[in-house]
Design goal:
elongated; single chain; 48% helix; 3 helices; Translation Initiation Factor IF3
Protein backbone atom coordinates (compact mmCIF):
# COMPACT_ATOMS: atom_id res chain seq x y z
CA UNK A 1 0.00 0.00 0.00
CA UNK A 2 2.86 2.37 0.80
CA UNK A 3 4.38 1.79 -2.62
CA UNK A 4 1.10 2.69 -4.31
CA UNK A 5 0.84 5.91 -2.31
CA UNK A 6 4.47 6.79 -3.05
CA UNK A 7 3.89 6.14 -6.76
CA UNK A 8 0.79 8.33 -6.79
CA UNK A 9 2.64 11.11 -4.95
CA UNK A 10 5.52 11.03 -7.46
CA UNK A 11 3.15 10.95 -10.43
CA UNK A 12 1.18 13.89 -9.01
CA UNK A 13 4.35 15.87 -8.32
CA UNK A 14 5.57 15.04 -11.82
CA UNK A 15 2.31 16.35 -13.24
CA UNK A 16 2.42 19.71 -11.45
CA UNK A 17 6.14 20.42 -11.71
CA UNK A 18 6.40 19.07 -15.26
CA UNK A 19 3.44 21.13 -16.40
CA UNK A 20 4.93 24.23 -14.79
CA UNK A 21 8.34 23.68 -16.41
CA UNK A 22 6.78 23.03 -19.81
CA UNK A 23 4.66 26.17 -19.57
CA UNK A 24 7.74 28.23 -18.62
CA UNK A 25 9.66 26.79 -21.55
CA UNK A 26 6.85 27.59 -24.02
CA UNK A 27 6.68 31.16 -22.68
CA UNK A 28 10.44 31.51 -23.13
CA UNK A 29 10.25 30.08 -26.65
CA UNK A 30 7.52 32.52 -27.70
CA UNK A 31 9.43 35.54 -26.35
CA UNK A 32 12.69 34.56 -28.06
CA UNK A 33 10.93 33.64 -31.34
CA UNK A 34 9.41 37.13 -31.46
CA UNK A 35 12.88 38.69 -31.03
CA UNK A 36 14.41 36.56 -33.80
CA UNK A 37 11.42 36.62 -36.15
CA UNK A 38 13.20 39.01 -38.55
CA UNK A 39 15.73 36.31 -39.51
CA UNK A 40 13.97 34.02 -42.04
CA UNK A 41 14.61 30.28 -41.88
CA UNK A 42 13.43 28.02 -44.72
CA UNK A 43 13.90 24.41 -45.80
CA UNK A 44 14.42 25.21 -49.51
CA UNK A 45 17.65 23.95 -51.08
CA UNK A 46 17.86 26.93 -53.40
CA UNK A 47 19.24 30.22 -52.01
CA UNK A 48 16.52 32.88 -51.82
CA UNK A 49 18.39 35.45 -53.93
CA UNK A 50 21.06 35.62 -56.64
CA UNK A 51 23.06 38.52 -55.18
CA UNK A 52 26.63 37.78 -54.07
CA UNK A 53 26.75 36.41 -50.54
CA UNK A 54 28.93 34.73 -47.97
CA UNK A 55 27.73 31.41 -46.68
CA UNK A 56 28.43 29.38 -43.56
CA UNK A 57 27.04 26.40 -41.71
CA UNK A 58 25.01 27.21 -38.60
CA UNK A 59 23.49 24.77 -36.15
CA UNK A 60 21.61 24.50 -32.89
CA UNK A 61 21.25 21.50 -30.64
CA UNK A 62 19.14 20.76 -27.56
CA UNK A 63 18.51 17.82 -25.24
CA UNK A 64 15.11 17.71 -23.51
CA UNK A 65 13.66 15.14 -21.11
CA UNK A 66 10.01 14.38 -20.38
CA UNK A 67 8.59 14.40 -16.85
CA UNK A 68 7.42 11.36 -14.87
CA UNK A 69 3.71 12.10 -15.25
CA UNK A 70 3.86 12.33 -19.03
CA UNK A 71 5.97 9.18 -19.17
CA UNK A 72 3.37 7.40 -17.03
CA UNK A 73 0.49 8.60 -19.24
CA UNK A 74 2.44 7.67 -22.38
CA UNK A 75 2.92 4.17 -20.97
CA UNK A 76 -0.84 3.87 -20.48
CA UNK A 77 -1.48 5.23 -23.96
CA UNK A 78 0.93 2.65 -25.33
CA UNK A 79 -1.28 -0.09 -23.90
CA UNK A 80 -4.44 1.19 -25.56
CA UNK A 81 -3.04 2.84 -28.67
CA UNK A 82 -3.54 6.32 -30.09
CA UNK A 83 -1.63 9.58 -30.20
CA UNK A 84 0.97 10.17 -27.52
CA UNK A 85 0.53 13.92 -27.11
CA UNK A 86 3.10 14.17 -24.33
CA UNK A 87 5.82 13.12 -26.76
CA UNK A 88 4.46 15.47 -29.42
CA UNK A 89 4.92 18.47 -27.11
CA UNK A 90 8.37 17.19 -26.13
CA UNK A 91 9.47 17.10 -29.78
CA UNK A 92 7.78 20.43 -30.56
CA UNK A 93 9.66 22.19 -27.76
CA UNK A 94 12.93 20.52 -28.78
CA UNK A 95 12.61 21.49 -32.46
CA UNK A 96 11.69 25.08 -31.68
CA UNK A 97 14.55 25.42 -29.18
CA UNK A 98 17.06 23.96 -31.68
CA UNK A 99 15.92 26.41 -34.38
CA UNK A 100 16.22 29.32 -31.96
CA UNK A 101 19.76 28.32 -31.05
CA UNK A 102 20.61 28.03 -34.74
CA UNK A 103 19.16 31.50 -35.38
CA UNK A 104 21.23 32.97 -32.54
CA UNK A 105 24.39 31.55 -34.10
CA UNK A 106 23.39 32.90 -37.53
CA UNK A 107 22.65 36.33 -36.09
CA UNK A 108 26.09 36.42 -34.41
CA UNK A 109 27.61 35.86 -37.85
CA UNK A 110 25.53 38.70 -39.31
CA UNK A 111 23.41 36.44 -41.54
CA UNK A 112 20.42 37.78 -43.46
CA UNK A 113 18.88 34.40 -44.16
CA UNK A 114 19.15 30.71 -43.23
CA UNK A 115 18.12 28.19 -45.86
CA UNK A 116 18.30 24.43 -46.45
CA UNK A 117 17.39 23.78 -42.81
CA UNK A 118 17.40 20.14 -41.70
CA UNK A 119 16.68 18.33 -38.44
CA UNK A 120 18.25 15.29 -36.83
CA UNK A 121 16.50 13.65 -33.87
CA UNK A 122 17.96 11.08 -31.49
CA UNK A 123 16.47 9.14 -28.60
CA UNK A 124 19.15 9.31 -25.93
CA UNK A 125 17.39 7.29 -23.23
CA UNK A 126 17.35 4.15 -25.35
CA UNK A 127 14.46 2.41 -27.05
CA UNK A 128 13.93 -0.30 -24.42
CA UNK A 129 14.99 1.69 -21.38
CA UNK A 130 12.65 2.16 -18.43
CA UNK A 131 14.07 5.64 -17.94
CA UNK A 132 12.38 8.89 -18.90
CA UNK A 133 12.34 9.69 -22.62
CA UNK A 134 15.15 12.05 -23.50
CA UNK A 135 15.52 13.39 -27.01
CA UNK A 136 18.20 15.39 -28.76
CA UNK A 137 17.24 17.56 -31.71
CA UNK A 138 19.90 19.08 -33.92
CA UNK A 139 18.93 21.76 -36.46
CA UNK A 140 21.39 22.91 -39.10
CA UNK A 141 21.34 25.04 -42.21
CA UNK A 142 23.26 27.43 -44.42
CA UNK A 143 23.46 31.05 -43.30
CA UNK A 144 23.70 33.69 -46.02
CA UNK A 145 25.15 37.16 -45.59
CA UNK A 146 24.85 39.63 -48.47
CA UNK A 147 28.09 41.12 -49.70
CA UNK A 148 27.71 44.86 -50.24
Amino acid sequence: MEQLIATLVFVTLGFFFGRRAEKKHYTSLIEREEKLNALPVIASRIPPYDAPYEQSLVSGSVVIANDYFKAFVAGLRNLFGGKVRSYETLLDRARREAVLRMKVQAKKQGADYVFNVKFETSNISGQYSKKLPIVEVHAYGTALKKIA
